[in-house]
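G., before I forget:
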Amino acid sequence: MTRRLAALTLALSVVFAAGTDVASQQAAATEWLVSRADVGRPGGQLVVIERAEPRTLNPVVAVDAPSKEILARTTADLIHVDRETQQPQPALARSWTVSPDGRRFTLSLRHGVRFSDGQPFDADDVVFSFTVYLDEKVGSPQRDLLIVGDKPITVRKIDQYTVQVDLAEPYAIGERLFDSVAMLPRHLLETPYTEGRLARMWAVGTAADAFAGLGPFRLREYVPGQRLTLERNPFYWKTDRAGTHLPYLDRLVFVFVPSEDAQALRFQAGDADVTTRLSAANFEVLMRDRGRRNYDLLDAGPGLDYTFLFFNQNTVASNDAPQVARRRGWFRQLAFRQAVSLAIDRDAIVRLVYRGRATPLWGHVPPGNKLWVNRSLPRPSRSPDRARERLRSAGFSWNAAGALVDKDGQVVDFTIVTNTGNTERIQIATIVQDDLKQVGIRVGVVTLELRTLLQRLLTTHDYDACVLALGASDGDPSTEMNVWLSSGGTHLWNPEQASPATPWEAEIDTLMRRQLTERDVQARKRLYDRVQELVAENLPVISLVSPSVLAGTTKGLGNLRPTIFDHHALWNVDELFWRGRPAGGTR
Amino acid sequence: MRYVWRRLGHALLVLFGVSFLTFVLAAAAPGRFGDELRLDPRISPETVEAMRVRYGVNDAVPAQYLRWLQSIARGEFGFSIAYNGPVGPLLWPRVRNTLLLTVPATLLSWLIALPLGTWSAARRGAWLDRLSAGATTTLLGIPELLLGLGLLLFAVRTGYFPTGGMTSLDFDELGRWQKVRDVLVHLVLPVTALTLAGLPILVRHVRASVGEVVRARFIQAARASGVPEPRLLVRHALRTAANPLISLFGLSVAGLLSASLVIETIMSWPGLGPLLLDAVAARDLHVVVAAVSCSTVLLVAGNLLADGLLYLADPRVRPERA
Amino acid sequence: MTSRPQPAGRNYQVALVALGVVYLAAIFAGFLAPYDPSTQSRDLAFVPPTGLHWVDMSGTIHLRPFVYEDGRSYPLRFFVRGAPYRVGRFFQSDRHLFGVDEPAMLLLLGSDGFGRDQLSRLLYGALISLFAGPLGAALSVALGLVLGGLAGFFGGWVDTVVMRAAELFLAVPWFYLLFAVRMALPLRIEPQEAFLMILTIVAVVGWARPARLIRGMVLSGRTRDYVVAARALGASDLHVLRRHVLPQASGIALTQAALLAPQYILAEATLSFFGLGVGEPVPSWGNMLAVLQRYDVLSSYWWMFLPGGALLAVFLLYYLLADALHERVAALPG
C-alpha cells in the first residue's frame, strides 16, 4: 500500500513538477525591481517641454537629443547607471559577474519581464539587440560605443535568462557599457531586420501598437508639430516598497516648443510642468514671477558642459598664404595662449552672461563632475599685466598706437568664430574681444551658422580661434576619447592627426588609452588627473566657464531629485508622483 | 483657354527650375547632413561618413535630383534623412496647419486695409490719415519676432489666450464644437500677429493707388457733376486703382505658405515654418525642396490668378503684344 | 484749369531737411556720442537711463544739469575730451559735444548687457543702417522698375520671360546662397563690409516683387492709349518709356521704396540669426532691435525700446518723403 502510494506520489510529483516547469517557461513570476524612493500615489499626468520634435522613435538610429530623451522613457537597458549616485544598478539584468581579467561579463536577466505589448523578454531579445547594434550594414551610432580594444563586443546566449558578453580587452568603465543601450523586441523587429528595413521602422507617426519597449511608458499618441503623449506601461518591471506597480504617473506628455524664449513663456503660463535647460537670463525672469504661479525653480549647480576658446593649431599646408602661416605661428606659441588665458575676465562672463549661475574654469573638467575633476589645478586670476609679461617673453611688443605686434613688426589681430543660435557664446566672444583689446590685440567676432562653422573647423581648417562648448553626457573620461586623442575627430584644434604633433599630445594619447583599460578607480583617476594637468598647462583649449543646470517644475512633484546628468528632472520619471493633488497635470 | 494651358505649362517649367535650383544652391552651401554629429565625441567620423554614403548625401547634384524625381513619381515626395521616412506624410499636415493660419490672416489684412487705405486716400491729411500713417510706420518698425514675442507676453500676463500650439492637451476628449472652439482660441494670437505684420504694406499700397486715382481728372469731373462720394470711391476709384492691388493680391496668395515662418516658430504653431527651418539647419534636402515646391505652386497659382483678374478688371490689359 | 494747391510741397521740404539732419548726425556720430560704442562698463550692465538733475539735494537750482554718482554730483560739460574717433577718412578728433567727468557715466538711454552706452551705439549704428536701408530699397526698386517696366511695356515673350524669372526668384530659398557667399568671404573683412555685401545680394534678388507690381501697372490700358498716340506721332520707345510709363509706375515704385527701406534696415536683425549680419561689437539699428527679441530683455529692460523711437521717426520721414515725391510726380502733366 505505502509503496503504491509512494509510487503514486512520485508519479504525481513528477507530473506536477513537469507541469510547473512548463508553466514557468510560459509565465515565470516576475522578479520585480523594488525602488527605494519614497512611496507615492498613482495618477496624474506630467507635461514636459521639449525643445524640438523627435526625428525618430527607433533606438537603433536615433541620434538627436529629443529622440533619445523620449526613447529613454520607453526603453530600458540591462544595467543602468543611477544618475544620482553615479553607480551602476541592476535593471533588466538582475545581477552580473565579472571575470577576474575583466573581459567577460555574465549577466543574469530578470525573470518574467514583459514588453509593453505583453510579450516576454528573454536572452534572445538581448542577443538580437546587440546583433542589430553591432551590424555595420545597419550603421547604428551605438556601434561606436560597443567597440572595445578596436573590436566589437560579442554577446552569447547561455540560457534563456543568461547572456555572456566578451570584450577584447578589459574596459575601465566595465558594466557602464550597458547603460542606455535599449533592449529591442525580437518579435517585432527581427523580420524587418532580416529584410534590411530595420532603419526605417518606428518612424514618428507609426501607429502606437507597432511599438514595444521595456521602459516605464509606452507611446500613446503623436500629434505632429505639437506633442507626443506616452502612457503608463502596465508591464513595467518595477514596484515601490509598498508593492505598487510603477510608474505612478498615468501619462507623460512632451510638448514641442522650438524657441527658447517661448519655452520659458509657456512654462510661466502654466502650459507645462517641467522645463529644463533654461538660460540664466530666463531663469531670472521666471524667478520674479514664481510666487504668483506655483512653480519651483531649481538650480542644480554647475553642470557637465564646458565652454572654451581654442586656436587653430593645424599644421600649415604648403599652399596656405603667408599671413595664415604667421598667425598659426602665434597660436602655436604656448606663451601666447597663456597670455590670452590670463587676459580673459572669467568672472565677467559668469556675471554678465550667466547672471552668476556658472562657474569659471581653468581646466576642462568642470567641478560638477565630482568624480573626475582635478581640484589641485592652479587658478590664476585675471591679470592683464601678467598677460603682457608673457607676451613680452614670447617676443611680442607694442607699437606706438598701443597695438600688439609680433617680432617681425606685424600687428597681431585675429577673428573668433562662434555659432549663431547660442546667444551666450556670442556674448562670451564679445567679452573676450574686449578683454584682448586691453592688451592691444584686435579681435573680430564672426558668428556663423553652425554647419558653416563646422565646415571651417573640421574640413577646411580655415579659422583663427573659436568659442565652443562640449558637454559630457555622464562625465566619464571614456566618452571624451575622441576629444583628447590626437587621432580623434573631435580633437578640435588639430583633429585626426596621423601621429601626435607635440610631446604633450603624445603623452595624453598614452594616458587616455591606459585609463580606458585601467580597472582600478583610483589609478584611473590619477591618470585622468594628469591629463587635466597637461591640458591646463599646454592650453590646447582655454577653458572659460561651466554653466549651472537650471530647471523649473510645478510645485508638488514628489520624488523629484534633479541632477546635473541627463535627463535632469526625468531620469527617475518612474518614481515621480503628484503630492496632494487629484489626477490632473498642469497648473 | 489656350492661354491657361500655356501658363500651366510654364508653371511646370518654373516648378522644375525652382526645385533644381534649390538642389544646386543647397549643394553649393557649406555643410552637409550630419555635421553637428561631429561635435558629439561618442560618434566616430567614420560612422557619420557611412551614414552620409548610405543616404546618398555625397552624390552629385544631378544624381540626387533624379532620385528626388523618382521619389515624386512614387508619390513619396522625397525621403527625409533626418526623419528616416518619406517626406509626404511629414508635409501635408503642416501645409494644412499653415494655411489654417495664413488664410484668415490674409483675408483679415485685406478686409482692414481696403477700407482704411481708401479712406486715408480720400481724406489726405485728415486725422485718420495721420493716424494710419503713424500706425503703419510703427508696425513696420516692429520686427515680426518682436511682435510675436510681445503678444505672447501679453498672453502670459493676462492669461486670456494660450501661449502657443494649435490644440490643447485634452483635444481628443473634446466634443466636435469644442474642438473647433479650441483651435479658434489658439488661432487668435498668431493670426493677430500675422495680420498686423502684413497690414502696413497693404494699407500703404491701397492708399497710394487709390490716392493717385482720386486726384485724377476724371474723378474730379465726376465729383463736379454731383456723383455722391462713396459711389465715386467704390465704383470708379477702386476699380481703376485695382491694378496694383490685384498684383499685390496675387503676391499675398503666393505668400500663403511662406509668410508665417517666424510667427509659427515663436508661437509653436505646427506649420511648415518650423519644419522648414529645421530642415535647412539640418541640411535635410528633400524636405526643403518639397516645402519650397509647395510654396512655388501657390506662388504660380497666385500670379496666374492675379493675371486673370487683371484681365477681367481692365480688358485693355493684354499680356500678349497686340 | 486752376492749378491745384501744393500742400505736399511743405511736407517734402520738411521731410528732406529732417532726413538731412538725421544723416548729418549719423556722420558726426563720433562728436555727438559721449562714448565709444564698444567700451564696456561691466559693472553697469543693463542700467536704466541716468537721471539728469537740475535741483540738488539741498534744494539749490543749478543752471547746468548734473548727474549723481556715489553721492557726488558731476555737472554736464560741453566739448569734453573723450574717446578718439574719426569722421570719414580724414577728420580725427577726441572732442565730444557733451559728457561728464569720470567716474560718473552719462547713460542717457541706459546701457546694454555689456554696459555699453545705448545712445552712443544708436548714433554710431545710424550710419550703417541709414545707408544700408535705402541702398537695398533703391537696388530692388530700380531693378524692379527696369525689368517690370520692360515686361509690361513690350508684353509678349519679354513679359513671359521676365515674369517667369520673377517667380523663380521669389520661390528659390536664397539663404543657401547667402551661406555660401558668407563661407566664401574671408573671415577677416570688416563686419560692415560683409553685411553690405550680403544685403546687396538680398536686394538684388529682391527685384521680383516690385517688378511684378510695376509690370501690372505698365500693362494697364491708360498707358496704352498714350503709347499708341505717342507712337503714332513718331516717338521712340525710350521717349515713351520716360515720359509716360515711368511716371505711371513711379507711384508704386515710391511706395515700395518707402516700405523696403525700413524692411532692409530691420532685415539685419533676421540676417544675424543666420550669422549674416553685422558682427560684434559694431552697432547697427537692426542688431540693437534684435536684442529686444529676447524674453528677458523684453520683459525687464524698458529703456532698450528707446532706440526704436529713433527708428520709427526715420521710417516716418522716409514715408513722408516718398509720399511728397509721389505727389509731385503725380502732379506732372501726362
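The CA atoms of residues 6 and 12 of chain B lie 10 Å apart. The longest strand of chain B covers residues 79-80.

More on Monday.
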